[in-house]
Each structure stands twice: as structure tokens, then as C-alpha cells.
Design a protein that fits this description.
By secondary structure, the chain is an alpha+beta fold. The chain is built from 18 helices and 18 strands. Helices cover 28% and strands 20% of the residues. It is globular.
């Protein structure tokens, strides 16, 4: 588990929840790997002039720089400079145009046609022009059932023809219906379909319009459609040398170097020292003018971060802000830029606990003194269960739960409860729960607090053993909370089951425009609070720390337009 300092330090290219396990884990030949790596070593040599070096600290660099498969924070941080997306996140957590645009229009029977456009002046680091075929290739590869990377649930998007392509069967629906959702049966079914030749070679809902435009037809409205289509722009020619549908392992073998149109290209990776060397990509629209060499150095632990920064071995570190971290840096030689972190933390109560008890418990929860002591002014307290980064967050909402005088009645409803949290007895969440236990003991209710590893925590929460727990909730790409609050949501661990919430979550999930979502989200969040299953506690702040002996503070003045250092690295001087 990553240290708290680096929780939310780097964001995935796009976070998605895996809903079905990978079906294929084929072996890759040594010859294939070597040939691909030799090919990788040739594409990025565009020989920029020597310039200044910027050194970036990144947590958990493993050396997997394949944009389809990279999953660690450090690897993704490196890739953020090599590969760019059609749209990027701004500081307000909104998708804005970058390499292109994504627009939509409503068509017949609730269908939505998205138009994906890229700029006509984009080039990869080998000088090749970028075409819409490269974007379409991203969609197709993610729809291959032999692909088992971080976006392997792409086929669940309601794109016309994508499931026929994934299962390789135009009549898949009737077959799947009779397989009882058995993973092993579905795996065998797909394996047979792929092994007897490709029957579905195209996704009918994806149409190439011209060199820089394609359309994608969704059968229904989906709030997450734009983020799903926000492809990382990779080179089809480079990635698909020998690849055909059903042979994803050939692309998976490309792990050491990646080809993109970002501001840098990956020149070298020192596996022993876990350091990635990036050089300026002169063909990029964002080619850096000053820091033409960027070195990403792996940070082993929280303690190492500040010492490496103070010793000048890294010029930028990113982490979760706290008084301890900021004071350890001192007041000289650094500049700190703060943004709200990409998750918030809540106390949850299982809906299996009687409603009247949940009402009293929420009113008895202690104050935020422990959070204040730990994080000082470096956190926000959400009043509703949604990240404050979203425009849909009701900023004028007042605290919902008020202190109660009914604690004496609690023991007549429940006498003992069990609470879980991740980590050890040193963690803030454990201390928050033990403070809650002290409060409840005054009313003859025993709250047993169990700190544990991730696996035990997940088992207790998902298996119904936990009455109360504290956990963080990641932002996601949109404000959509269907999976958390709808009675059939995959993350609805509280077991909340409310017909009005089901209706609202479905309407929000199908709301493509912001004007449709704002009022609906306000209504939904109040309704969730009225069920007394979630109490938002805190949303931490992320801090990007810059060495001002290397980086001019004047180059940071536009930082407010960017979500952290990642997109502005090429602008620094």
C-alpha cells in the first residue's frame, strides 16, 4: 500500500474499475520481446540540443511504460510526459480540449453520436503524422478480449457493436444469457470464438470520417462516455507491427519504451536505479524550451522524499499536504502549490444497522479535532458525499448531521458494533474510530475497532462483517455515483436500497450535459445523507513542491490552469 504522503500524488491516465477478470495470460517469446525493444530504441531519436535538466521524484517506478498496461503511480507519471490524451484535466477537474475535441449530438431512440476530432498538426516523436486511425486503434485494442490491462472493461461501454467484437460473435447476447454469468464458461466461449478464426472484424458503431475525425455511436446516454472516448494517442504503426485481434500479448511485450506525441520521449531507463530519462520531443506541440531533459527518479519511501528534495536529487515532489511535510521542507528554496486531492474520506455505516441507530450514531460522531491536528489547514471538509473538485458539488450546502441528545437511547437498539479501517493503529482513521468508540462507550455501546491490511478490510466490508468503516472514495472521471448508491452498484457496500436513489442515479448516469446534472446531484446527495449511511470526513490537499534554485517561480504563474505539475512540466523554466 502506498504511503499516505504519496496517496493521490499521481493520477492514472484514466481510472476505470475492472469488473471481470482477465481471460488470457499467454506466454510471450523472448525473440518477440527483443525485436520489439530494438524497434522501440529507434523511434525517439530526434536529437534536441542539450539544455537544462529537471529531476522529478515519482513513487513506485517499475519500468512498465506501455500505455495500455502501466498501472503504478511512477510509471504513469513518466507516461504522462510521453503520451497525451485528446482532452486533459484542468485544475477544476474538468475535461478540456488538448490534442483534439469530443462533441456529441442526440440521434434516434436515445442514442448519442460522438464526434472525435484530433488536430491536423500532430506528430509522434519519430516525426510521423498522427491520424485518427491511431485513435481508433486505441478503441479497438481495448475491445479485444485478450487484452487484460487497466482498461479491460472498455467493452462494457454501450457502443454499438462493441460487444459483438469483444465476444467475436454477432449473436453473443443469446449465448451469454444461457451461461449463467459463469466466468469459466464465458472464458471458454470466448477462447473458442477467437481460436476458430475472427468472425467480427469491425465495431459497427465506430466510423472513420477522414484523417482527423471519427464518430462513435452509443446506444444510450452515458455520463461517462466522453471520458471513455478520451483516448491516449498512441501510434498504430508502432504498436501493431504483428498484432491481430486475439493476440494482445504482442503489444503487451512492449514494456520498456513508449511512443507518443507528448513533450518528451523516453530515451533510457536505468533499471538498477529505477530512473527514467526523458528528452525533449522536438516534434511535439508542447516541446519544452528550457528543460530539455527530464529525469524521473523512484522515491522508495515517504522519509526519502524530503531528503532527496533537500539534497537536490529531485527538483519536484508531489504528495499529500500536511503541516509536518511543509515544515520539514523549511521556508527557503521551495515553492508549494496546493490543489484538492482526487479523493475524499468518509465514515460509512452498513444499512444492516437499524436506521434509528444510524441517525443517532451520525449525531454522536466526534468533532474533527484529530484531523485538524494531523493536517492543520491542509484539508477540506465536504458537507456532502462528493469530491469538492466537481462542479456539481453543492458548494453552499450546510452540514447535514447535527449533534444529538439521543445517545442514551442507542443501547436500546444496538449494544455492540464492529468497525474496520485500513492500516495500523498509528493511522488517522484508526484514531478517529477509537475516539468514536470512546464516545459510544458512554452510552453502553461497545465499538470494536480493527485496523487491517487491504485484503482483510475489503473482505470485511464486502462480506458484511463491518458495521462501520472509514475509507477513501476516489473521484472518478465524472460525478457519476451510480456504482456507489444504486441498489445494484458494484461499490454499494453499505447496502443502501432506496427506490428514489435508484431513479436519481440512473437519471444522472444518463445525463450527458452539465445543466441536467447539477440539480439532480444536489437532490441525490441530500437523499443519500437522509439514509445515514455515509458521513464525509475530509478531503486532503495535494501539494506539488518545486525547487526554486532550479525552477523559476515566474514559470509557475499559470499553475492554476493545470491539475498538478504533470501537464505543466514542459512549461517550466
Amino acid at each position: 500500500m502506498a504511503s499516505r504522503l504519496f496517496e493521490n500524488a499521481f493520477y492514472p491516465l484514466e481510472g476505470v474499475a475492472l469488473r471481470i477478470k482477465s481471460f488470457f495470460k499467454p506466454a510471450v517469446s523472448v525473440t518477440l520481446v527483443l525485436s520489439l525493444l530494438l524497434l522501440c530504441g529507434c523511434f525517439g531519436r530526434n536529437n534536441t540540443d542539450a539544455g537544462s535538466v529537471i529531476k522529478v521524484g515519482a513513487y513506485n517506478i517499475t519500468g512498465n511504460f506501455n500505455p495500455f498496461y502501466a498501472g503504478s503511480e511512477g510509471d504513469i507519471a513518466v507516461l504522462s510526459q510521453v503520451c497525451s490524451r485528446i482532452q486533459r484535466m484542468d485544475a477544476g477537474n474538468n475535461l478540456i480540449n488538448d490534442l483534439g475535441s469530443i462533441s456529441y449530438e442526440y440521434v434516434e431512440n436515445e442514442k448519442v453520436k460522438y464526434t472525435v476530432t484530433i488536430r491536423d498538426d500532430l506528430r509522434f516523436s519519430n516525426g510521423d503524422s498522427v491520424k485518427i486511425d491511431d485513435v481508433i486503434f486505441w478503441y479497438y485494442f481495448l475491445s479485444d478480449a485478450t487484452y487484460d490491462g487497466v482498461y479491460s472493461d472498455f467493452y462494457l461501454n454501450d457502443i454499438e457493436g462493441v460487444k459483438e467484437y469483444y465476444y467475436d460473435d454477432p449473436n453473443y447476447a443469446s449465448v451469454i444469457k444461457n451461461l449463467d454469468n459463469s466466468e469459466s464458461k464465458i472464458k471458454s466461449y470466448i477462447t473458442k470464438n477467437y481460436s476458430d478464426g475472427i468472425d467480427v472484424a469491425e465495431i459497427s458503431g465506430i466510423k472513420r470520417v477522414d484523417d482527423y475525425t471519427c464518430t462513435v455511436l452509443f446506444n444510450s446516454r452515458d455520463i461517462n462516455a466522453v471520458s471513455a472516448l478520451n483516448a491516449t494517442v498512441v501510434s498504430k504503426a508502432f504498436c501493431s507491427a504483428d498484432y491481430v485481434k486475439g493476440e494482445a500479448e504482442k503489444i503487451k511485450a512492449i514494456s520498456k519504451l513508449a511512443m507518443g506525441c507528448g513533450p518528451y520521449y523516453l530515451s533510457d531507463y536505468d533499471e538498477e536505479n529505477r530512473t527514467a530519462v526523458l528528452l525533449a520531443n522536438k516534434y511535439s506541440l508542447k516541446a519544452p524550451e528550457v528543460f530539455t531533459r527530464a529525469e524521473f527518479k523512484d522515491i522508495p519511501s515517504e522519509d526519502d522524499a524530503v531528503s532527496l528534495f533537500k539534497d537536490g536529487k529531485v527538483n519536484i515532489i508531489s504528495g499529500t499536504a500536511s503541516p509536518a511535510l511543509i515544515s520539514s521542507l523549511g521556508t527557503e528554496g521551495s515553492k508549494s502549490c496546493f490543489t484538492n486531492a482526487g479523493s475524499y474520506t468518509s465514515l460509512f455505516i452498513s444499512a444492516a444497522v437499524p436506521l434509528e441507530a444510524r441517525k443517532i450514531l451520525m449525531g454522536l460522531y466526534p468533532s474533527n479535532d484529530l484531523i485538524d491536528k494531523e493536517y492543520g489547514g491542509y484539508y477540506t471538509k465536504p458537507s456532502r458525499p462528493l469530491s469538492v473538485r466537481f462542479d456539481e458539488y453543492p458548494g453552499d450546502a450546510q452540514p447535514y448531521y447535527q449533534p444529538t441528545l439521543k445517545g442514551a437511547f442507542l443501547s436500546g437498539i444496538v449494544t455492540s458494533l464492529t468497525a474496520y479501517c485500513r492500516g495500523t493503529q498509528d493511522s488517522l482513521d484508526y484514531r478517529l474510530l477509537t475516539a468514536f468508540a470512546d464516545t459510544l462507550s458512554q452510552f453502553n455501546v461497545k465499538l470494536t475497532v480493527k485496523p487491517c491490511e487491504d485484503s482483510e478490510f475489503d473482505s470485511a466490508v464486502k462480506g458484511g462483517k463491518a458495521d462501520i468503516w472509514i475509507d477513501s472514495v476516489p473521484d472518478g472521471i465524472t460525478c457519476d455515483k451510480y456504482e456507489y448508491y444504486n441498489s445494484s452498484g458494484v461499490y454499494n457496500y453499505t447496502g443502501i436500497n432506496d427506490a428514489d436513489i435508484d431513479s436519481l442515479t440512473m437519471r444522472i448516469h444518463r445525463a450527458t450535459g452539465f445543466s441536467d446534472r447539477g440539480a439532480l446531484m444536489r437532490e441525490l446527495l441530500d437523499l443519500v445523507m437522509s439514509n445515514y449511511v455515509e458521513y464525509p470526513l475530509y478531503q486532503l490537499q495535494r501539494v506539488d513542491i518545486y525547487d526554486t534554485s532550479v525552477i523559476s517561480q515566474e514559470s509557475l504563474i499559470d499553475a492554476a490552469a493545470y491539475d498538478g505539475y504533470s501537464d505543466m512540466l514542459c512549461l517550466l523554466y
